[in-house]
Structures are given as C-alpha cells and as structure tokens.
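Structure ticket #2291
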Amino acid sequence: QLQVEESGGGLVQPGGSLRLSCASSRFSLDYYAIGWFRQGPGKEREVVLCIDSNGDTAVYVDSAKGRFTASRDKAQNMVHLQMNSLKSEDSAVYYCAGDHRHWCDKRYLKVWGQGTLVTVSS
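Resolution: structure written out below.
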C-alpha cells in the first residue's frame, strides 16, 4: 500500500493562509495524479482538487476555486496545497490521495495518508 505523510495543518484565523504538504519517502510522487480530500465535522469526505503529473490542477469544490492551488516540488518529492482566504467552512481533516494514472480523474483517487487537521477559527 502506498503511503504518504501530510503536514502543515493547524489553527488559522479566517482570512488566513496555510500550506499543506504531502510527502513520501518510499516512492516518487512525480508520475501520479495527486489529490486532496477533506472531511469536515459531520460532513462527508469530498475531493477538493487534483494535480496531474504535468502540474495542471483541477479544482472540484466551487468554494475552493480561486483560493486553493496545488503545486509540485519535485526536488523534495512533495505536493503542496496552498489555501488562501480561509473560511470556517474549510475546517476539516485534509487527506492526500493519489492515483497511478498521470491525469486527474477524481473517481479513481484513493486516500493514502492519515490526514492533517485544519481549523479555521478566530
């Protein structure tokens, strides 16, 4: 089973920013589509966005468009989720997910990590 580690979660005030990271010490993330899921309190898990092997990103949650972006750091073998203008409704556990396909298809993304908690509150 492929394993990754998420990091970067924490407490942030509304309007603030956080950058989450997904990393693996066991395999290269370069050739996988990498996505981010989130699950807020009392909510179902949802896929937020996905970045393909070329670095193109698809954002699936309307409220995240224009605020969330993803990027790859190939030197560090990491994928980042940059979240700006955070809102209380962004509070959730965020999970790194992946698919062996190079392109993004949210139907096939599978959660690989244990998640990192993001809390947006004043």
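Closing remark: The mean pLDDT is 96.
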